[in-house]
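Bumping my old thread because nobody answered last time. Still need a sequence for this structure:
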């Protein structure tokens, strides 16, 4: 449905609404700090957007956040992303970089958008909670305008969203949240993304201990420089992991899922981390580590039974440490942010 730009305000279909679900993501995947991440099944956030005549981006509902997120449109990342998207659309149309024939409605001054966010992910969990909101918001508003921007064009905006929420524009959550699958970010600038294939039968056990670790703080704790010998070993682990995923060589994957740079520092923020790691590996995990900046932990395994035993074992350790936790048995998902009908 292409509209005449001149007649915009009167012709906005107020009832037009798009809802997008974006998945939780496991960033770093142990040896791939800031360059590797995968989407998971089922867990995620939903953002709905609809045109209004109000001339503003409004945040009309936030649910599932336990009252922890800002409910003001200019402070919540979902509505903020919608505003930034509209600004960029306007700029690109004005500069002639994007022709109005590519948008279903031109974002003129009378145009407003109502945003609703339904959090399905715990905040500050290490499961890409802000990324899921960012990816869902960007894809939803793009769809509402008739998808004038490609997913690749949404990625820089999504990375900017990460910068706003945690101080750095790391792409290893937002990219798999938008695209799905396991993705290697070979280069951030210029952006070069490489989907990595993986054995489809793998299970992913996720434990979310109820402690808070802010990505911003977890990044500040890291060293600015590392030793050459560490770099050499870590490169070998990452190369072995990628090859293990691609070829389905689980033994290579098992040997390579190691991180001697970031994990030892962040493990100190998670009580019982090494006991959990030992328990997970004893139960047959191919690899066990911190999801993103934590506190969530993840393990990959070959069978559902193994994935359940791992969850039981690590949850027991967490309990002994006096930490409540939520366990999720899931898989790597090939699907990223997508429209849902509600
Ligand atoms: N690569 C990022 C980090 C992911 O580890 O800080 C944050 O979820």
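Sorry it took so long. Here it is:
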């Amino acid at each position: 449905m292409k509209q005449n730009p001149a007649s915009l305000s009167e012709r906005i279909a107020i009832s037009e609404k798009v809802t997008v679900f974006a998945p939780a993501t496991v960033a770093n995947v142990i040896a791939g700090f800031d360059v590797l991440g995968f989407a998971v099944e089922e867990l995620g956030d939903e953002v709905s957007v609809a045109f209004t005549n109000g001339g503003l981006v409004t945040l009309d509902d936030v649910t599932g956040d336990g009252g922890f997120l800002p409910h003001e449109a200019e402070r919540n990342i979902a509505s903020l992303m919608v505003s930034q998207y509209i600004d960029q659309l306007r700029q690109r149309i004005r500069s002639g970089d994007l022709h109005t024939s590519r948008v279903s409605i031109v974002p003129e001054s009378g145009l407003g958008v109502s945003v609703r966010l339904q959090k399905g992910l715990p905040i500050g969990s290490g499961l890409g909670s802000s990324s899921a909101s960012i990816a869902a918001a960007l894809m939803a508003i793009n769809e509402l305008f008739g998808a004038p921007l490609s997913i690749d064009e949404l990625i820089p905006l999504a990375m900017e969203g990460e910068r706003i929420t945690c101080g750095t524009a790391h792409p290893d959550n937002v990219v798999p949240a938008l695209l799905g699958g396991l993705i290697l970010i070979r280069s951030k600038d210029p952006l070069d993304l490489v989907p990595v294939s993986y054995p489809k039968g793998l299970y992913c056990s996720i434990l979310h201990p109820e402690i808070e670790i802010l990505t911003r703080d977890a990044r500040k704790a890291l060293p600015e420089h590392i030793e050459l010998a560490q770099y050499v070993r870590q490169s070998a682990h990452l190369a072995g992991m990628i090859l293990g995923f691609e070829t389905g060589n689980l033994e290579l994957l098992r040997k390579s899922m190691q991180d001697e740079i970031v994990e030892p520092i962040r493990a100190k923020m998670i009580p019982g981390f090494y006991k959990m790691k030992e328990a997970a590996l004893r139960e047959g995990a191919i690899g066990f580590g911190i999801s993103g900046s934590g506190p969530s932990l993840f393990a990959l395994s070959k069978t559902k039974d193994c994935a359940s035993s791992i969850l039981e074992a690590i949850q027991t350790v967490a309990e002994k440490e006096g930490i409540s936790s939520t366990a999720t048995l899931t898989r790597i998902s090939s699907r990223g942010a997508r429209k849902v009908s509600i």
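Confidence is low (pLDDT under 50) at residues 1-10. Let me know if any region looks off to you.
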